[in-house]
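Key result, reporting period 2: structure in, sequence out.
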């Protein structure tokens, strides 16, 4: 979730509306002016999700690409999600991510062939402003505040303000492959989150079998395996990348769906030398967890969870 993405439109997370930010100096970009606060971001619920999707998908479809709705926590509620039939433990999500193919909507936005991604994102933002009051852009994403049809008490301001759900639209030319890198299995509480999975993949791609250490790097947000020295994209297909990462022709996206699945298919599990970077990252994030895992009993437990 891009927690500050809608602040320029006056829409804040409740925790961000605090006296500390209100009292900041005038020149501080994080300073909050109470009169400019228009609404509050609330978590998306499982029950609200299909109604939000039903309202937004036709808008995108009319542009030529309805978007990929199967990423992040909220994506696990979508019937098109790869592990939808396994269920999802997620009841709320910080936002909804919808990956949009930039070229797929270019023509409907009235933009010429060859228009770059930034121009297409600007066009999408302008189009969405015809439907939603608060629309912003950050990096490769367009964001909207979708009305939650309720209000939230803001104690520090002493007022009730409209509540909104945040919907993010990563809009790129490679959206049709990128979104697959952000689909995660939430059928169980695996203790690791989607960010952890991306870190594990980055660590593995540092040491692809048959290549010198750190020949490659993983651009998770962009869904690409790159050559570290040249920056050249060498692969975008998640199934193909899985085969290279595990050096196994049977490897698929399913092997990469969670950290637990990665560990099950990696000799040595969490103790694999190929996960040195990951262990360092996780030691900082979960200081009491990482090095107690990887035992025979732990592998049996995870195997039972995954039905292997």
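The corresponding designed sequence is given below.
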């Amino acid at each position: 979730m891009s927690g500050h993405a809608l602040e320029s439109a006056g829409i804040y997370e409740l925790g961000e509306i605090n006296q500390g930010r209100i009292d900041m100096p005038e020149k501080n970009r994080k300073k909050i002016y109470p009169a400019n606060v228009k609404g509050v971001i609330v978590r998306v619920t499982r029950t609200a999700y299909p109604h939000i999707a039903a309202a937004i998908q036709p808008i995108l479809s009319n542009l030529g690409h309805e978007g990929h709705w199967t990423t992040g926590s909220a994506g696990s509620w979508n019937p098109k999600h790869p592990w939808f039939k396994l269920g999802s433990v997620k009841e709320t999500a910080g936002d909804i991510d919808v990956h949009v193919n930039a070229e797929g909507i270019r023509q409907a936005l009235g933009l010429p062939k060859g228009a770059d991604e930034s121009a297409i994102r600007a066009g999408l933002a302008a189009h969405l402003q015809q439907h939603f009051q608060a629309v912003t852009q950050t990096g490769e994403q367009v964001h909207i505040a979708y009305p939650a049809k309720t209000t939230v008490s803001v104690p520090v301001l002493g007022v009730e303000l409209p509540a909104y759900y945040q919907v993010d639209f990563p809009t790129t030319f490679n959206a049709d492959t990128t979104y697959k890198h952000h689909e995660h299995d939430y059928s169980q509480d695996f203790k690791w989150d989607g960010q952890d999975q991306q870190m594990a993949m980055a660590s593995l791609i540092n040491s692809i079998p048959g290549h010198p250490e750190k020949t490659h790097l993983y651009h998770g947000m962009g869904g690409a395996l790159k050559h570290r020295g040249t920056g050249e994209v060498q692969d975008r297909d998640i199934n193909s990348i899985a085969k290279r990462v595990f050096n196994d022709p049977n490897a698929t996206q399913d092997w990469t769906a969670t950290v637990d699945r990665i560990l099950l298919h990696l000799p040595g599990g969490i103790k694999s030398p190929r996960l040195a970077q990951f262990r360092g990252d996780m030691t900082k994030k979960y200081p009491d967890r990482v090095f107690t895992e990887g035992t025979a009993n732990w592998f049996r437990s995870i195997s039972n969870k995954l039905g292997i």
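The domain at 7-178 is CATH 3.30.460.10 (Beta Polymerase; domain 2). The mean pLDDT is 92. This case is discussed further under Risks and Mitigation.
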